[in-house]
Each structure stands twice: as structure tokens, then as C-alpha cells.
Amino acid sequence: MPSKLPRLFVKSPLRTGAEIVLPPDQAHYLANVLRLKPQEQVLVFNGVDANGARAPPPRQEEGDARR
User: How far apart are CA 18 and CA 22, in angstroms?
Assistant: First the structure.
């Protein structure tokens, strides 16, 4: 795992097991700009919770804006 994970701001509350739906621009950023692979992780934060959470990049399903 890289020593510095990519960070991503989300508006959702951070809870264990929560699914976070990303807007298309954030999904594009993870998939096409950072070119993250499914096994790689990102650090998500929301500016409210004390610490961010590590999460795998979201998957993209055909016709799905989530990624």
C-alpha cells in the first residue's frame, strides 16, 4: 500500500459499512485521472468526523454513475 493515499472529500457521514455514492465528477476523477485499480484504497473524509476512513475505490457497473 502506498505511504500516501489519495484523499477524497465526501458529503456523506462516515460509518463502518456505509456505501457512499459519488457524483459523476468524483467517480471520473478516481477512475480516469488517478487511474485507481479495484484493489487500491482512498482516504475519504467529510470535514466533520475526526478521522477519515480508508475505502476501496467504488466499482462502476454498466449504466451506473457510481465508480
Answer: 13
Q: Which residues of 27-62 are buried (b: 16+ CB within 10 A; e: fewer)?
A: bebbbeeeebeeeeebebbeeeeeebbebebbeeee
What are the tens digits of pLDDT across the range 23-67? 999 989 999 999 988 788 888 888 887 565 565 655 655 444 443
26, containing H or E segment: helix 24-28
pTM, full prediction? 0.61
**Contact between residue 25 and residue 60 where contact means Cβ atoms under 8 Å apart:** no
